[in-house]
Amino acid sequence: MVCYADAQLITWFNKRQPRGIQSVSERRLGTESSKTRQALLEAAEQVMREEGYAAVTSRRVAERAGLKPQLVHYYFRTMDDLFLALLQGLADNYLIHFARALASDKPLRGLWEISSNPEAAALTTEFLALANHRKNIGAEIIRLNRRMRSMQTEVFKQVLQSAGFDLDEYPPEPLAVALESIARGMALEKSLGITRSYASMRALVERYLTAFEP
Fold first, then answer.
1. How many other C-beta atoms are found inside a 10 Å radius of the C-beta of residue 97?
2. What phi and psi values does residue 43 have, to the nearest 5 degrees?
3. Distance CA 123, CA 51 (A)
4. Which residue in 203, 200, 201 sits closest to 185, CA to CA?
5. What residues form DSSP beta bridges with 28?
6. Residue-wise pLDDT tens digits, 117-172
7. 140 contacts 128 by C-beta, under 8 angstroms
8. What are the residue ranges spanned by the domains of the chain?
9. What is the pLDDT of residues 170-193, one digit of tens each?
10. CA triplet 15, 130, 9: central angle to 5 degrees?
């Protein structure tokens, strides 16, 4: 359940989105607080995770949610609108966990754990594949990625400065990219049963995290 503080953070984040990009709320037909709409989004996420983005059709989503197919287009004018709403929901969820990581005494370790989530990594991969065919999805991913990467970089910068590291030798942005990429890649491989070098790679990351956050 999203608490009041989490909801306030999401609202603040959404208000800071650049103009010229239509928000999910502007495209929505049904009410955002509708339980039916939420059920459709949850069903779409399940189908996407289990069967891939190509299986996410109005009929398949409605069937999984136990609802009539017409309701999908009542709440989402097109399937792209449903994908965009689902993508924004993932971004909101990331933002909540990001804020909680910042509130901890080990924010970098918190970022590592967030990026190591296998379900989130699998959905991210599906959205990247979908973006190859849907330009508006790709544009939304780029926009969200830029904002998230900026936030991640700022965390690295603050932690490294506090620990006395030279930012020229340890540049925050490449380190943020590396941390997220390694965590997501390892999560995907582990979900497939690929564990070769997993322990040694994780030990290496742990060593650096301990050095950055003594």
1. 17
2. -65, -40
3. 11
4. 201
5. 76
6. 888 888 989 999 999 999 999 999 999 999 899 999 999 999 999 999 999 999 99
7. no
8. 10-18+88-212
9. 999 999 999 999 999 998 888 888
10. 20
